[in-house]
Amino acid sequence: MRPEASRPESPAASVLTLVRGRDACLRHLMRGLARQSTRPRELVIAWMQAEPAPDLPDPGCPVRHLHVPGEPMPLAAARNRAAEAADGDLLIFLDVDCIPGAGLVSAYAQAAAEGDGLFLGEVLYLPPGVAHLDEADLDRLGRAHPARPPVPETGLRPEPDAGQLWGLSFALPARAWRAVGGMDETFAGYGGEETDLAARLSASGLPTFWVGGARAYHQHHPVHVPPLQHFDPILANAARFRARHGRWCMTYWLGQFRDAGLIAWDEGADDIRLLRPPTPPEIAAALRPDALFS
Length: 294
What we know:
Blueprint: E1 13-19, H1 23-34, E2 42-47, E3 63-67, H2 75-85, E4 90-94, E5 98-100, H3 104-114, E6 118-125, H4 135-141, E7 143-144, E8 156-158, E9 169-173, H5 174-179, H6 193-203, E10 208-218, E11 223-224, H7 231-245, H8 251-259, E12 263-264, E13 273-274, H9 280-285, E14 287-288
Parallel strand pairs: 1-2, 1-4, 2-3, 6-10
Antiparallel strand pairs: 4-9, 5-10, 6-7, 6-9, 8-10, 11-14, 12-13
Helix pairs in contact: 7-8
């Protein structure tokens, strides 16, 4: 009998997450890690706040805690510090709002064992008040984002547009992260840093794949539609992205700002012309407590 070909060895995976003021969400994430069919080597938590939360549950793996000082949301810097501290060959970035499905680490690790890539997982959005249920109920209640393509049930599907990367759930080899220098910390505050990373990874020759089975569940929180609370950094980071890559990112949000009469802009424009900043009442009115998607 012909011997079966041995499967490639799965790389050791580090799960990385960023936290600012969402301690309850973090606890659900950690409980989800404790249910993994394949345990990660470690969980690295980058705290964008002065002190870690107390009384955290056991995620079933070692935990590293980092403090990332600076602006209120130093997202690029926090991801870089977490990646620098990680020991794993595979970096799995998971938003603190996400509960990992039991197969998430295994699916990402199996994908990485087959070859290098930027790996994207499915995220289902949960309604308000849902976090403690079992996975079958989370599957039943979760909703796919209408702007995202369908994800294969198993295996990999090539994705030609690396810009499909969203920071909620993705993975890549640590060496690929280091090869492009991680995230660009000149993208200050909210917006654009993930799309810039994806563009540079694609330019380096790293292919992008959707990964079946790497499912996570996004815990509900109120969102602003449009995200007027991040108006200034979105404009600055969109302009920075265009200067580097010759095209705009965050066009959906820029279009919402334009339609609200705040900016003059279209996708063929060379720059964004500020008409006026949003007022505090406009920012407050944009908050949608029950909206699933932003």
